[in-house]
Amino acid sequence: MIYSFPEEDRDYLTEKLAIIGELAAGMAHEIRNPLTSIRGFLQLLQSKYDPQAAEQEYFDIMLDELDRINNIIKEFLSLSKPAPPQLQIVSFDQLVAEALLLAEQEAIMHEVKLEQHLAPDLPLLCLDPAQIKQVILNLIFNALQAAGPGGKVTVTTYLDEENREIVTTIADTGPGIPPEQLQLIFEPFYTTKENGTGLGLTLSNRIIAGHGGRIKVKSKVGEGSCFSIHLPVS
Known about the structure:
The protein has about 230 residues and is α+β, with helices and mostly antiparallel strands.
């Protein structure tokens, strides 16, 4: 099954994100202040224990959870009030190569084979390299988690001359996405991950749409999934 976010749903999503933004902006300051205090006192208590003490594991878990809360707040704010793209003329070949370099260590940790088939001499693009790299890495990390130990993730780039687009595909050999879930994956807060926020794909979709592009998904249960990023050549 192939799915891409419908154009007519974008106004609805924009309105939903605006409401989220108002809530997030109002709550962020009030939440972050006590979080900072709690984190500081936890680190102070942690320093009073021997580095090899069993309690250190509990402190590390609590600090990680506080950081996760802080990251969720950051994602709320990014969704509701995204920073305008800092557009530059960039080499897409180099941008993808840099993202793959960062992903290699993650692939080793997940025991997943990371393959790449990158087209040479792709046209230069006008885009925000930090934002696009964030999207590519998010999709690769998702694919690595889906593939699991012993699986494979393949990243491919090519020029679609007919549509004047540069296409990046990220395919995994994971379990695939059931059709009833596929249409929900770009919705804010929808996630099937135990520790997921359900904001990563929503933010990625928004970034690519802000560059005049789109994200498509093709998935079949038992055979894996393939996300494709389409960016216009102008």
